[in-house]
Amino acid sequence: MSKTIRIGTRDSQLALWQAKTVQEQLEHLGHKTKLVPVKSTGDLMLNQPIYELGITGVFTRTLDIALLNEEIDIAVHSLKDVPTLLPKGIVQATVLKRGNVRDTLVFKKNEEFLAQENAIIATGSLRRKAQWLNRYPTHTLVGLRGNVNTRLQKLENNSDWNGAIFAAAGLGRIGLTPQNAVNLEWMVPAPAQGAIMIACLESDKETLEICSALNHEETEICTHMERAFLNKLEGGCSAPIGALAFIKDEEVHFHGIILSEDGTKKVEAKRSAPLGKHQGIVDECVAFIVERGGKNLVSKTALKPQKTNIFSSKILSEGQKDLFADAIKVESSDFIKTTPNRIKRSILKAVHENVVITSKNGVEALLNNCAVEDLKFKTIYCVGRRTKKLIEQKIGPVKHSAKNAKVLAEHLVEFMNGSEVSYFCSDIRMDDLPSILAKNNIKVNEIVVYSTKLEAPKLPESVEGVLLYSPSTVQSFLKNNTPNCTAYCIGETTAKEAKQYFNDVRIAKIPTIESVIEMVNEHYIAKDKKND
Question: Is-catalytic flag, 262?
Fold first, then answer.
């Protein structure tokens, strides 16, 4: 391969260690490489449709976007952080040989507290908390968030804590495993814990082939089973689910577990089968657990009433929730869903030479209705880099793209040839493009190619703020809720809609979920200082 492989990674100490490990292995095979650290708060000029790609994991999201924008060739992840469903266009290329799969207890003085009735253990993981309470029901569990270094420092600073639980691989890889640490052999780890995964674009066959040389088949088999178990139980990051598969003497062994959040209830299953005949054992374990009420534990965990003060209009992963300050209780749900509409062929044949598409959803709806060769548009205008890229990959060249619909409308008024456009849009749209064009005597033929459903739930009365990512999420919120809380908005367009209803509207510095969360934290930190 003549080009340099750009290796995308987060810039934390552990993430860089993992990326450098991949770099060393690729260079050993004779490939040129370059590390590209990507900050999770990077300046990502995104449009609302990016959130419909299925990009959810906070530790993978920025790298997913960098991949889709072709700013990097591969992304290196801790596999346990990767959502079980990857974004469209991105695939798992390789899994490296697995490290230590176990959880580790780091204790302050000695392990004598394990035999005592009262002890305080720190962890931010529901899975670890539930298993610990199942084994030590009289102990107290406290929250612990941050990177490895930060969590170790918090353990050191809290004199009343007896210990804290970490992933053994994370400590070991950056040389921070203390002498006063012990592996918890009895605790079932998170699915894919200890494994490093490389992701790349599905369309990049050359890079896929190169990365395949690094794949460790045994690790791939085992982590695939563990993640399948998690997915089949419909367990998101918030559910106390553990899974471990390993191969010994040509035999595949699997152990899956699910618990109630307080650890009082536990259902687990173990199965073994010869390698090559093991494909059904995950389904057997899932069936066994479901028959014994295991899925009810997931539901109860997800629906457990609590005093929520922040609610997100897009489902958040555990990693995203971990970014919130400890004092903030956060829940999430998808406020909007989209489905493509059927479009009559006669309508497409009547499309004007000037075509406007403002979202990736519009592009996908068109492609869902007809073959690419039938979309013979003369002049295409669009909103956003991602939309432009998809159009040019699937349909044809884009004459001009803009960062939002208002800017595009202003460009059309000044530079477009003709006085008529065909606008592929949703049944619910809140942009200014049609009205701006109409005021300037440009006829807009709206073609509704996809439908948007507003499905926000009734939020708890304790909610003090809602995270909003598009004007549609504002309208969805209003269907079942009153705007008597703070609106934390991802950008100016969303904020403009929110200001019509909310008294307190705040706008993120850059259009990312991480930036919105950072804004919430800053608000609550300032609030706490004021109260002090």
Answer: no
